[in-house]
Amino acid sequence: MKKLIIAILLVIGSFSFVSAQTVKKTEKKKATTTASTAAPSVAAKSTKVEKTTAHVKKDGTADKRFKENKTKVTSTTAPMKKNGTPDMRYKANKKK
Q: pTM higher than 0.90 for the full model?
């Protein structure tokens, strides 16, 4: 009986290993852009020299690794907990 169970498990296991080896090929879709593929213009070359230009990723969103692209959060209210209620450890939240 043990030999039969082991044999069945080996057969089932071999099918799982065979299916694990197949690799599905996926095609990468290129993002279509409206910019022409002509030589870079003078304006594009001058932006490389300037330090104040915004750094952008390939998809056009701002790259948050750079200081000028990070958004600054300024809080004019008193500190809050994660759930949004006022944190009573601070004086600004305590009622007089």
A: no
